[in-house]
TrEMBL record:
Keyword Membrane: yes
Biological classification of the source: Bacteria, Bacillati, Actinomycetota, Actinomycetes, Bifidobacteriales
Protein name from the UniProt record: DUF1624 domain-containing protein
Superkingdom per UniProt: Bacteria
Organism, as annotated: Alloscardovia theropitheci
Keyword Transmembrane helix included in the entry's annotation: yes
Secretion signal, residue range per the UniProt entry: none
Alphabetical keyword list: Membrane, Transmembrane, Transmembrane helix
UniProt xrefs under InterPro entries: HGSNAT_cat
Length: 272
């Protein structure tokens, strides 16, 4: 009986891999455009001389901008968790994402040694994919109600642990031995003096991926999934879907291109 259920699950998964969920592409594309806009402003703040750069730096420190930045990462992580079951070879995918994240860290250490990217969104997506591969083995047959409760619990843990990197969680001081080195930093407990311009540690952000994964498990095989296959032929939707389908390569290239353009403009105006 178990082998039959497993075979049926594999057949359903294979069918799902051939279905295009256009709405997910659209959401991912919209998130990527927001990320490009945010990074453009960040580059202007970093590269333009004062007072222009200073004004943009002050703007980037606004609470509303921080919420905007966090919502972009939240969307990528949640969608990635939701789409985990659509792909194959998660161990390879996760390892590739970790390696891409490492490459970005190396490049930013060279270009911007005072403000590098350490443990950015690609890194947590990679480690999250590897962790989901372990969870997937025992969670795929859970009842829908259990999956939905797990999704809610994951979001509650994310909310509760969101400020763990500061050393204080809801007014409770965490032990200082947690904040020791790069290993604890990738977990979510950075040591004193740790700097990263794009910091997405495993705690709490993996729980966003976990929530997306369990939300998918709770709606898998229901009519709700049909909503995600809706396809619009207007230009904007087509454009967003195209970006969403090529999100990884665009993510890897966009910052290099933006940085180069802003650097050229600064040189042309100020000769710097």
């Amino acid at each position: 009986m178990h082998s039959r259920l497993l075979l049926l699950h594999r057949q359903v998964t294979h069918m799902q891999q051939r279905i295009r969920y256009h709405v997910i592409d659209w959401i991912r594309g919209l998130a990527l455009i927001n990320m490009i806009a945010y990074h453009t402003l960040w580059d202007i703040a970093q590269l333009f001389p004062t007072p222009v750069g200073y004004n943009y730096t002050q703007f980037m420190l606004e609470p509303s901008v921080h919420v905007w930045q966090q919502s972009i990462g939240f969307t990528f992580l949640f969608v990635s968790g939701f789409c985990f079951c659509f792909g194959s070879k998660p161990l390879i995918r996760g390892t590739q994402l970790v390696l891409w994240g490492t490459l970005i860290s190396i490049v930013t250490f060279i270009v911007l040694p005072n403000d590098p990217v350490r443990f950015g969104v690609l890194t947590v997506l990679g480690f999250g994919t590897l962790l989901l591969a372990l969870i997937h083995a025992w969670s795929r047959m859970l009842p829908r109600i259990v999956s939905m409760c797990a999704a809610v619990l994951s979001l509650l843990i994310f909310t509760f642990m969101h400020d763990a990197q500061t050393g204080v969680v809801w007014g409770v001081q965490l032990p200082q031995w947690l904040y020791h080195d790069s290993f604890t930093a990738v977990l979510g407990f950075p040591p004193s003096g740790f700097i990263s311009s794009d910091y997405y540690p495993i705690i709490p952000f993996f729980f966003v991926m976990l929530a997306g994964y369990f939300v998918y498990r709770s709606v898998e095989g229901t009519r709700a999934m049909a909503i995600l296959t809706v396809h619009s032929r207007d230009f904007l939707s087509q454009f967003l879907e195209w970006i969403g389908r090529h999100s990884l390569i665009i993510y890897l290239l966009h910052q290099v291109i933006i940085f180069a353009i802003v650097r050229i403009i600064v040189f042309a105006i100020y000769g710097l």
